[in-house]
Here is the input.
Amino acid sequence: MRAIIFSAGKGERLEPLTHTKPKFLAPLLDKSILDYQIDLLDRIGIKDIYVVVRRDDVQFLKDRSVVPIIQAEGYGTAAALKASRSYIKNETLIVYGDVVVDEMSIKELINQKEEFSLLTAVSSEPQNYGVVLEKDGNVEKIIEKGEGKGDLINAGVYKMNEKILEYIDEIRESPRGELELTDVINLLSKREKVKIVKVRDFWIDVGRPWDVMDVNKLILDRVNSKINGEVEEGARIKGKVVVEEGARIKSGSYIEGPVYIGRGVEVGPNSYIRPYTVIRESAKIGANVEVKGSIILERAKIPHLSYIGDSIVCEEVNVGAGTITANLRLDEEEVKVTIRGKRVPSGRKKLGAFIGGYTKIGINVSIMPGVKIGAFSYIGPNLVVSRDLEKGGKLLRG
Here is the structure.
């Protein structure tokens, strides 16, 4: 069996994380979503792995044991299928590049005796996905944005063969201007049985910034403690914590797991790292800093006297002393975030900021809940940031 991972999406919903990296490199502890998928496939014995990407993103596949497929034109999952036409053979696993799923579910999917099978999940937000209508254990139809049709959704993992190619040229662009693989499956299901397999353990579609936080929480719950770095006398570690080689936890710091601390990270002195925090390689968390439920990417610097709560701070960001990310509205209403120009409910009362890579933030800055700051932005000192900043934005006075 071979596997093809569809990773040519633009990643607009994940901005500002995707201002500096493609969405398949969204962080998952010390790796990326793509690395997680490759490792999972390797564990179940699939070594022949292809990744569909845009031409500009081929560079990010270096040093990975995969073969790139260039999607030169079109958007959508069926456009990725078209680009993969010559690579789809008998017994091919198709995986969307923005889903994280458990190993047991993939095994069950590929072990089905039917030629075609589809992984499904139960969602509390079915209106955001393709809703799967079931008949006798098989796909009857997939309804995009199927409000009121049930909560069983398309999980974006398929077992198929070259027969699927017979239907590619019969579909047309969807209202959002994309070629949808679900339209191909709907045509296929009229002539062939497409077996429904339901997720056994977990599944997350990493489409929005807070989904990145959710998937890291999920994986953190499954790691075992490992202390390979230096923990100075006077520092305390409680619960499941990973401290990688070369990391240093300075005296007076308190780490409350589950927490992941990458290679070369410095924490403290006298800092507080709260549960479900991920701090990636060579980041610096300085004196008297508190980080709660956040993801701090590589080489970011939060040197002193700051609070980062329920937020994502991307690579190479420099945060000035006294900067605070507010993560709770005064009225305690649900935090909304602007995604593709629309205000979208996050489903959470506590949500901080999303700060794009290489941004510089002055001292004593307060960033309000749900604010997105584009990569390469500048924010002056003593300011309250209550609105989003575009990539390369500047906010130098109130």
Summary: The radius of gyration is 22 Å. Residues 219-395 form a domain with the UDP N-Acetylglucosamine Acyltransferase; domain 1 fold (CATH 2.160.10.10). Helices lie at 33-43, 77-83, 103-110, 181-189, 209-220.
